Each structure stands twice: as structure tokens, then as C-alpha cells.
Amino acid sequence: MSEILFYLGAVMIIIGGICDLFGAIGLLRFPNFYVRLHAATVGTIGGAVVPLFGVALLALGADFLPHRYAIAGASFITGIIVLLAAPAGATALAYAAHKARLVEWKPKVDHLAEVRGDD
Amino acid sequence: MLESTFMTLMKLIIPLYIAAFVIYAVRAFKGPSIPDVILAVDCMSFDIAAFMAILAVYFKSTFLVSAAIILALWAYLLDIYVAKYLANGEVGA
Fold first, then answer.
1. DSSP for B10-39?
2. Which ipTM score applies to this complex?
């Protein structure tokens, strides 16, 4: 039973590392701030929440670890905090960047402006 | 048995996270506008929190995870303060 939890957590940590690297490459290579928000979501949800839940499962299954229940519970709580805080922070940042006109905004299709007939 | 498996896993995991930190740091240093810098620092903080949870299992210490909770909350606070300042021109109520 503990081996199943351990290997499930190990697989989740490996998935988290790969998602983290892909999110970082996307954040470096994407052309625009609003496109970079997508890569940032891959890097936080896939790269931080999944390995935190993986550490919780791995610590529950690890027999060699002292204080394993403390590490599992605290990393589970950290995963829930990141899961709630990262989308809220990214949304607030996108709203502020659009309202303060810091980032150039060139949409290819804007149906709302076509319906309104103006900017 | 499980401990040697975990040490092998760490040899696989540490280069992935270090490479991701370096690429995030490049974007944070060369970001053309303020929201890019804040977004890169945000991603870097959340990923350092996850990496500290992995290192807590590696070093067999509980204190690293309790620091990771505070790091995640601090990154959210940075987002909200900077967004509030950019939208309103001040960090008021």
C-alpha cells in the first residue's frame, strides 16, 4: 500500500518537473504578455500544484521519513493555497495591465467593437 | 529500498527545476514591461515553493515546508499589490 502511494507521488513529481520546464520555455518564447499568461498558468498549476500533491502522497508512503505526516499535511495545504492564489493573481495582473494600458493591445478579431461600431 | 529510489528520482528532478528557474530568471531580467517582470517573479516563487517541499523530503526536515506556505502567500500578495497600484495609481483601500 505504501509503495503504491510512493510511486504515484514520484510520477506526479516527474510530471510537475516536465510541466515546469515547458512553462518556463513558453514564458521565454511567447511574443505577447497576454499569450505569456497561458505559459504562466502551465508553469504554476502544472509545475507547482501537481508536484506539491505528489510530495504529499510520496511523504505518506515513505517509511524512511521522520515526521512524514507533518510534511504531507503541510505540502497538501500549500498545494491548495497555490491552486487558489495563482489564477486570482494572474487575473488581477491581466486586468491591471489592460486598464493601465501598459501592454500593447492588438486583437485580430474584436466582435464587441464591431457590434458597438466604435472603439 | 524506497530511499534509494527517491535518491535516483532526485537526480532526475533537480536539473529540470534548476533549468526552469534559470529560464524564468532570464524572462524576469529582460521583461519589456512591468507585468512581465511580476509574472515571471510570481511563477518563480510558486516553483521555489514546490521545490522546497521536494527538498524537505530530501533533507528529512519539516521546517522547509512551513516556509513554502509563507512563500506562496507572499507571491499572491505581490500580485495583488502591484495590480492594485497599476490599476488605481495607489495602494489604498
1. HHHHHHHHHHHHHHHHHHHHH-SSHHHHHH
2. 0.89
| CA B78 to chain CA mean position, Å | 12
Domain holding A109, by residue range, is: 1-116
> Does B76 sit within 8 Å of A33, measured CB to CB?
no
Query: What are A15's three cell numbers?
Result: 510530471
What pLDDT does A119 receive? 52
Nearest-Cα distance to chain A for B26, in Å, is: 8
Residue A111: the pLDDT is 82
- Which chain B residues touch A66 with a CB distance below 8 Å? 60
**Band (B17; pLDDT cuts 50, 70, 90):** very high
The residue extents of the domains of chain B are 1-88
Residue A105 has pLDDT above 80, yes or no: no
Is the distance from CB of B52 to CB of B71 less than 8 angstroms?
A: yes
